[in-house]
Design brief:
This protein is about 30% helix and about 20% strand. The chain is of the alpha+beta class. It has a five-stranded mixed beta sheet. It starts with 20 loop residues before the first strand and ends with a strand. The structure holds benzoic acid.
Length: about 220
């Protein structure tokens, strides 16, 4: 029986995103140049001209302005050729009017997919799984999602996760279960007795001293 537990490189949360230069539908791009001073969402799909992938790519395309407004650039990837990508972009545009207006990497030699652990042989030997890497403006990987071939991702969760990361960075807070924009946020627990005493006299919404919330 085949060994599907072979070790592949898997970037982790907190790692600097491995840099690469790749052929894309927007020409040759280097990740560190493309993502200079902005967030990047790097996501893979198993194959062009397949149904679930078409819904996902269309979903990203329809939210492009939202991502622009959140200082975030999109970059897709699959192990298909540039010709296939361009034909698919053209086909979807003709059929639905939606333009995939962001670069899609043609990772024919699987260089980037291997670098990012997007090849998971137990799921597929020949296609990338549905991965999503959230990379911040300092090129650090902040959140990773992996989905299998037969389950499409959730755009609301992708947007929520990005807003949560950006809110946490901007305000130094944490976000509770099911948090969404405009909900209360968690103030980090006190680290000294003095901070704890001050907290008792504050107007934070408190379950106990270690679980306190506020509105932004
Ligand atoms: C799809 O996008 O529909 C798909 C792609 C590869 C395997 C299974 C489904």
């Amino acid at each position: 029986m085949e060994d599907t537990n072979e070790i592949h490189s898997m970037p982790r949360i907190g790692d600097i995103a491995p840099d690469f230069e790749a052929s894309t539908t927007f020409g040759n791009l280097k990740l560190s140049d493309y993502g200079k001073d902005s967030w990047v969402i790097l996501f893979s799909h198993p194959a062009d001209f397949t149904p679930v992938c078409t819904t996902e790519m269309s979903g990203f395309a329809e939210e492009k302005k939202w991502f622009d407004d959140h200082n975030t650039k999109l970059m897709g990837l699959s192990i298909d050729s540039i010709h296939s990508h361009v034909a698919w972009v053209n086909n979807v545009k003709k059929n639905t009017g939606v333009l995939f207006d962001f670069p899609i990497i043609a990772d024919l030699d699987m260089k980037v997919s291997k670098m990012y652990g997007m090849l998971q042989p137990g799921e597929s030997e020949t296609s990338a799984v549905r991965a999503v890497f959230f990379i911040d403006p300092k090129q650090k990987i902040r959140l990773i999602m992996y989905y299998p071939l037969n389950v499409g991702r959730n755009m609301d969760e992708i947007k929520r996760s990005l807003e949560a990361l950006q809110t946490s960075d901007e305000h130094g807070v944490a976000l509770p279960l099911n948090w969404k924009k405009n909900d209360k946020v968690i103030v980090p627990p006190p680290k000294t007795v003095q901070e704890m005493t001050e907290r008792e006299n504050s107007d934070l919404e408190m379950v106990d001293f270690y679980l306190a919330k506020k509105s932004l």
